[in-house]
Write a structure and sequence with these properties.
The protein is built from twelve helices and 15 strands. It is an alpha/beta fold and 341 residues long. It has one domain: Rossmann fold, CATH 3.40.50.720. A seven-stranded parallel sheet has the order 3-2-1-4-5-8-12, sandwiched between helices. Strands 9, 11, 13 and 15 form a four-stranded mixed sheet that branches. A two-stranded antiparallel ribbon has the order 6-7. A hairpin with a 4-residue loop joins strand 6 and strand 7.
Length: 341
């Protein structure tokens, strides 16, 4: 049965990749996006060139507009809520805008769904930043990376919430609203606390999408700054694996409704941001890369690794594309499309 998907922020990196997947398998797709992000228009043009101008509907509007959202949601089967202000640094400079987009915008999406006749499923792209700096968690420094002292499988969904930064607060507010609308109003909602997602169509910048940004900077000759010592560790997840999780949440909504899942690369897909990734990138490029070392940024975690066992146990999901393969794919895409940057 063909379903109708509304993707807020559908012209972004994750949204355009999911739109492509849905169109390919014959679903109806509506992209709701204000097209303000770098690369958004390029992603729309890519989708039109790949699948035809009538392969999806585009609503150019803002999630801060509740009336337009109400109209957009009607008759939809699934809402994938990706639209967001995504940079911690931007949230510090303009906390009001950050709140209005992330917290109020998510509330607007939920209200539109609650007031609709179709009552679609809602998937919410949350973030591991809801766990804060986790200063009480023991960390060990090794030669090229940090690691957790007592969390070999990473951070589970039971880790206490500790919103840090306006961005952490606004995304965390959305996270809890999405969860509670299932409990209070009976909507089918799922929260996915995502780690570092990377892959093609990602127009990364220094403040967000660091893996893509480093690759883009290396290929195009832009300067690279490393904040901290470069041994900070993240679990990274290739975008196709993330989209598998979205599909499983929708297909098994009786199981996933009202749940929160950590969705990241997990302990098998970790990398330190420069002491390990730097040599890998230099190997791809075939030359050494000059970098500038700078001060640690406030709230920067030495380590974040997701414990992804809940999603595996309940949904049968786990990453399929390892770090080496995923980064090779990203590098190849950037090299082939460097005219876009």
């Amino acid at each position: 049965m063909t379903r109708r998907f509304l993707i807020t922020g559908g012209a972004g990196f994750i949204g355009s990749n999911y739109a492509s997947r849905l169109i390919e398998r014959g679903e109806k797709v509506v992209i709701y996006d204000n097209l303000s992000r770098t690369g958004a228009l390029r992603n729309i043009e890519w989708l039109r060139a790949a699948y035809g101008s009538d392969s999806f509907a585009l609503i150019q509007n803002d999630i801060r507009n509740p009336d337009e959202l109400l109209k957009a949601v009607e008759g939809v089967d699934v809402v994938v809520h990706l639209a967001a202000q995504v940079a911690v640094t931007t949230s510090v400079l303009d906390p009001r805008q950050d709140f209005e987009i992330n917290a109020l915008g998510t509330f607007n999406v939920l209200e539109a769904v609650r007031l609709s006749k179709s009552k679609p499923i809602v998937l919410y792209a949350s973030t591991n930043k809801v766990y804060g700096g986790m200063e009480d968690v023991g960390v060990v420094e090794e030669e090229k990376r940090y690691r957790y002292l007592d969390l070999p499988m990473g951070v589970s969904e039971l880790q206490p919430l500790d919103f840090h930064s306006p961005y952490g607060c606004s995304k965390g507010a959305g996270d809890q609203y999405v969860r509670d609308y299932q409990r209070i109003y009976g909507l089918h909602t799922v929260v996915l606390r995502q780690s570092c997602i990377y892959g093609p169509r990602q127009f990364g910048v220094e403040d967000q999408g660091w893996l893509a940004w480093f690759v883009i900077a290396a290929v195009t000759g832009k300067p690279i700054s490393i904040y901290g010592d470069g041994k900070q560790v993240r679990d990274v997840l290739y975008v196709a694996d993330l989209l598998d999780a979205y599909d499983l949440c929708v297909d098994h909504i009786d199981q996933s409704s009202g749940k929160i899942y950590n969705i990241g690369g997990g302990p098998d897909n970790v990398i330190s941001i420069w002491s390990e990734f730097g040599p890998m990138l230099e190997n791809f490029l075939g030359k050494k890369l000059p970098v500038r070392m700078d001060y640690w940024r406030p709230g920067d975690q030495r380590v974040f690794v997701s414990d992804i066992r809940k999603a595996e146990q309940e949904l049968g999901w786990k990453p399929k594309i390892n770090v080496q393969e995923g980064l090779e794919r990203l590098f190849k895409w950037v090299k082939e499309n460097q005219h876009l940057f």
